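Holo model, adenosine-5'-diphosphate. Inputs:
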Amino acid sequence: MCSTAALGRATRFLKLTMTVTSDQPRRILLRLQNVDKTFQMGEVKVEALRDVSLEVFAGEFLVMVGPSGSGKTTILNLVGGLDSVTSGRVWFEDREITAFSAAELTRYRRDTVGFVFQFYNLVPNLTALENVMVSTELSREPMDVIEALRLVDMNDRKDHFPSQLSGGEQQRVAIARAMAKNPTLLLCDEPTGALDFATGKRVLRILVDLKQQLGRTVILITHNAAIAQVADRVVRLRSGQIVELHDNPQPLPPEDVVW
Ligand code: ADP
Ligand code: MG
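Output:
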């Protein structure tokens, strides 16, 4: 028999051991190779991404920073299977996303990727609980809906409609909706962009916990350079190109970030 306390001790020991022995090679979850993305708007050609190559490691918290228009959302959309490259290739594990059929792309988006957007995108006439349920009904191995709401501490507000929730609360429901699908990869597009400082930090804390406690891979894009301090690695974008990539050996707890 194993008591809860013993289980807790074992988990803590395991975590410690894992930290001590964590200099093994990092497993690549995502790989972009020489990716170009061009948008054609009538006569005008916009080169949103130019020759972007990048590896994303399993279980890391990667922050991509760059000014507005630098190509952040475009990368996220390509990686999430929402848009297709102009040239270049993208892999998820050993599968090439850029070679997927439409049906494979749908399955990938549904089962593997969770999205969190700046303006939450909740369905206004569904309650918090129902917004999360919609996503579980479409996915293969969903999390329990209440469990997902509990992750973001919104289970006591489950019967409220989005209009009855603050921005921060709506974003927490949106994170629960993304997580309820049990995705390997969580893609967050300016998730704190519409929130005040304190609320933004609370949302960041939830995302960091999803990485640390549930081992999810998180890619967060932002124009706010201060947020990069919580990342394991930081990618800096400018005019559709990666201009800097660095490790953050000691990520700051979200509570310590100031902007
Ligand atoms: P960011 O997220 O860093 O602000 P985006 O990836 O949204 O930047 O955009 C990069 C560039 O591509 C911008 O110049 C933007 O106007 C252009 N762009 C993005 N999406 C489209 C689209 N669907 N059609 C035309 N141009 C687009
Ligand atoms: Mg954007």
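Residues 124 and 162 are 6 Å apart (CA to CA). The helical segments are 4-20, 72-79, 102-111, 128-138, 145-151, 167-180, 197-214.
Archived with the compound record.
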